[in-house]
Amino acid sequence: MAVTECKIMACPAPRRTPMTMGLAALFLWLCTFFLTALATPAYAHRVNETYVYFDVTENTLSGRIEVTLTDLARIQQGLPQVENALTEDEVRATQTAFFDYFKDRLQLSANDQPYQIDFDDITFFGSSIDTFAQFHFNVLDVDRTPTTIQISYDGLLDVDPGHRGFALIGSNSRNGMDENEAYISLVFAPGDGTKDLYLNDEPIKDIARSFFEYGVWHIWLGFDHLLFLVTLLLAAVMRIDNDHWVPSDSIRDSLWQAVKVVTLFTIANTIALSLATFGIITLPVTLVEAVIALSIAAVALGNLIPRFHASVWKLAILFGIFHGFGFANVLEPLGLDASRKATGLATFNIGIEIGQLAVVMVLFPIFFILRRLTAYRVVFLQFGSIALIAVSVLWFLDRTIGWFPQVAATASSVIQ
Predict the structure, then answer these.
(1) CB count, 10 Å around CB of 31?
(2) Which uninterrupted H or E stretch holds 197?
(3) Which of 108, 269, 381, 415 has a Cα at 20 to 30 A from 239?
(4) Predicted TM-score (pTM) of this structure
């Protein structure tokens, strides 16, 4: 008897063949290998980010901007990608130009009165990702430091819209904060304009709003997470008939199945994000990013082989866990302290879910309208999935290639 319909959530598990068992074994081997060989701690500073620290006392306001030597080369050349970073000597030789650049892009005021900024020194420190230059500044004409200032920062955003600027209170003698590398107060993206920076304690409602917005924008600007959703949605407007894709007859059933899979994905990444944020379980950044890349290929393979797609909800849970650890790696430098963790984590997760559902509500109707076209099945579903697999593999190689020497060193030490 012909099978007329196969619901995504109700299909029996696919038959175990040597091919599927081999793929499963390969996946488990990769996870185990990278987990043991690449276990390294995450660092507070990351590529493609600039940090603006403020040091607060009763009567003074000073700080520093921390930026990589590679990003300084991008500023100097006006290019999003450069072959070589600047040297420390080159930075010192052109320090006046960099002082002027950041002075134009860091604007401070209080009570509608602008502050003047004076850059006076450069220091350097090394990190695992690059050497950072520290441009030290003093805020002039501060008789008594206010509790709130207005700040706008758009350094490097003209060169690379994907760059992010973070504002932090490095130290505050008024409330005993010292050497803060954990809690980031503000995130600056293109078009953000002026924001309030609280020099004492930030109101809970502002924390909730900031992390909700950050969750939404992380989905919309996180290209790998966005492609994972698109890959899931490509087959959501189809159904399986005799191991072949045919257009779905019910928009309600298809949309409901899509929302359920996306929600399962969200539940899984919420659990993983919570475990990572509270320090219960952590995974190496390289492993997480590599598996996120492979997750796109796994779902895209299900689009090409319908019987594999029957277990897409299982893949959504599995890869939702790794995406959750990926979200944790993004959230970790925002350094939620104990009093802010619950609020920040909850609103960040809500923002992620809202951002994902917004993507579903925009793309799903388009895919559903096009689903009966041969071009949709051939170009979007088949060729599109092949292209997604290729992108996924390239991302996997890009995210792991730099770790191969460490893998070799680890293997060598084990052998010896």
Answers:
(1) 16
(2) strand 195-198
(3) 269
(4) 0.52
